[in-house]
Amino acid sequence: MSVQEVLPLNGVATGSSGQFRADHLLVAEMVKPGSKVLDVGCGEGDLLQLLETRGIDGRGIELSREGVNRCVAKGLAVVQGDADTDLVNYPDDAFDYVILSQTLQATRQPRVVLENLLRIGRRAIVSFPNFGFWKMRLQLLVGGHMPRTENLPATWYDTANIHFCTIKDFVQLCDEINVKMERSVALDLYGRPVPLNLPWWVWNMFGEQAVFLLSRGGGK
Amino acid sequence: MQVAITRLIANEVDGQMGGVKSIPSPAISADERSHEVDHPSSQIAHFGAEQPLRLDCGVDLTPFQIAYQTYGELNADRSNAVLICHALTGDQHVANVHPVTGKPGWWETLVGPGRPIDPKHYFIICSNVIGGCMGSTGPASINPATGKVWGLDFPVITIPDMVRAQAMLVDRLGVDTLFAVVGGSMGGMQVLQWTAAYPGRVFSALAIACSTRHSAQNIAFHELGRQAVMADPDWHGGGYADHGIHPHRGLAVARMAAHITYLSDAALHRKFGRRMQDRELPTFSFDAEFQVESYLRYQGSSFVERFDANSYLYLTRAMDYFDIAADHGGVLAKAFAGIATRFCVVSFTSDWLFPTSESRALVHALNASSARVSFAEIETDRGHDAFLLDVPEFFDISRAFLQSAGKARGLTRDG
């Protein structure tokens, strides 16, 4: 399945000037009200708070102790844990959705993590920075150095992000492990969805980040 | 060996202790301690022959009594009751001056006006555990069958027995569902036992620095303490009451050993280092040469003034037996299957008695049971005792957890 077959969402608030991050609003739109959600790598709990305002039963896992403690201090159900090692402790079908927001690239085994997401949850929502974004390409092509952006300011030697990929790479992985892409949206530099009906290479070029709604593929 | 009360004040190793200060000679007699056993300065719930306490060892304990304190008012819905469970050597005086020692309540950092568990919002209950020595029936109580102190004739009790007795007290107080059950260490074990035994009666559970089972190392330390008590000739096979004495030397040694496990190397080093006590140079003797020795001796000698030696044996034994998974076919998650209780689990980085790994195992089981759980590990070098000390991050988390649970429970509050 290619990206252009997948419809982007309607009615998603655009821009990043509001209270919530653009990708969080997008993710929240994808979750049906009343469902049970696990946010893996939930940071300081911004997305979980957004979900709770929509009547969603949200839980979180976060690696950093500071992040966890801030979440718990906000009254969120968050545990300290590592996506790479702790997801195996969750039973099958424990959640309606498992969210991995801007975290996939920081895991040691993205493929195993992705498989676990769709074991624990009936659906997974994955967002990640697109390394095929034109600014990234330009920095490598012209600058000759590892790309750094506003959203990814760390240098190559101290970044937590060890497994960058492009939208094209991710789609290929989904095909490989028989994951169905129900919806996908690429966001441009300003957090706006890249317009509909553009060929996939445009998304891969102009999407600064991407959000995918995934489910288990059939016939596995 | 005479355990000397040295000139070092140290209620808490992490208190505002700037060095060496003199302490007043404690004026607490053995009589005052033993008076609290049968006639506590607390409310008492008596349970007669019609309400025996069915113990895990197979004995029906009757009659028995539970001594307890309450703070705040039960609301009209009876939905704001919070049960505080005390640790091994704690008691029901969680937020009031202790009747024997005259010290502030043992958890006034967490419980009290303006604290996360505020009597303005909650009806707070704290009872002395069964087997204790501050007014609830235990080995230091009078056995009505003989008219003499129970001693080792008292049946062996377990954490589930303690919780069963608490449930009877909570019934007596007219509370069906507790808004929260809160405790650290042995108190945390009781919290977990509450959720496993009475899941429908616990709306939220705050389990701090504890475990679902006592580790081999912890059992080993407890055995060390018990042997210290039993090695004291004044113990008299547990029958010291008949001789009008108390094995204070053995119990003090037990407390000293245990106290080390409540601290951490870093905390001891920070507070005492290798500093000497009231001297510049070694005296080449076995006096308390080092401040840390002096501190431990003080801890030991002050403990024996308020605690019964046999009670110490029974309560350490109860902790040793604790293993929730064993009661559920060896699968911890089964203990919490389908539970609706909201959990908050807290551990401390330098706690080596109940290390974070124990809390993590609990959290994994709760996750596997789809329970709603928060888990935070707090960075501190104060060891296991951190849960009793002034650790703001811990209070923030406790407050937020209870506030969020209160919202879900429909508790209205103005503060």
Strand content of chain A: 15-25%
CATH top level label of chain A: Alpha Beta
The main sheet of chain B comes to:
8 strands, mixed
- Tally of separate domains of chain B: 1
Determine the strand fraction of chain B and express it as a percent band: 5-15%
Spatial strand sequence of the major β-sheet of chain B:
1-4-6-5-9-10-11-12
Q: How many distinct folded domains of chain A?
A: 1
**Form type of chain B:** globular
The largest chain-to-chain contact, stated as pair and per-chain residue counts, equals: A-B, 21 and 27 residues
Order of helices and strands of chain A: HEHEHEHEHEHHEHE
CATH fold label of chain B: Rossmann fold
Intertermini distance of chain B: 54 Å
Q: Assembly type of the shown chains?
A: heterodimer
The CATH architecture term of chain B is 3-Layer(aba) Sandwich
Question: In DSSP terms, counting alpha (H) and pi (I) runs of 4 or more, how many helices of chain A?
Answer: 8
> Low-confidence parts of chain A lasting 5 or more residues at pLDDT below 50?
1-17
Shape of chain A: globular
Instruction: Give average pLDDT of chain B, whole number.
Output: 91
- Percentage of helical residues of chain B? 25-40%
Active site (chain B): 185, 351, 384
Subunit structure (chain B): Homodimer.
EC number (chain B): 2.3.1.31
Domain AB hydrolase-1 (chain B): 80-389
Task: Describe it.
The complex is a heterodimer of chains A (220) and B (415). A 7-stranded mixed β-sheet of chain A has the order 3-2-1-4-5-7-6, sandwiched between helices. Chain A is an alpha/beta fold. In chain A, α1 packs across α2. Chain A is built from 8 helices and 7 strands. Chain A has helices spanning 22-30, 46-53, 65-73, 83-86, 110-120, 134-143, 167-176, 200-206, and strands spanning 36-40, 57-62, 77-80, 95-101, 121-129, 179-187, 209-216. Chain A has one domain: Vaccinia Virus protein VP39 (Rossmann fold, 3-Layer(aba) Sandwich). Chain A starts with 21 loop residues before the first helix and ends with a strand. Chain B has 415 residues and is an alpha/beta fold. Chain B has a single domain (41-409), classed as 3-Layer(aba) Sandwich (Rossmann fold). Helix content of chain B is 33%, strand content 14%. Chain B contains 11 helices and 12 strands. In chain B, the strands form 3 sheets. In chain B, strands 1-4-6-5-9-10-11-12 form an 8-stranded mixed β-sheet, sandwiched between helices. In chain B, α2 (159-172) crosses α3 and α5 packs across α7 (291-304). Chain B starts with 29 loop residues before the first helix and ends in a 6-residue tail after the last helix. The chains are: A alpha/beta (220), B alpha/beta (415). Chain A binds chain B through residues 57, 59, 65, 68-69, 71-81, 86, 89-91, 94, and chain B through 342, 344-345, 360, 363-364, 367-368, 370, 372-379, 393, 396-397, 399-401, 403-405, 407.
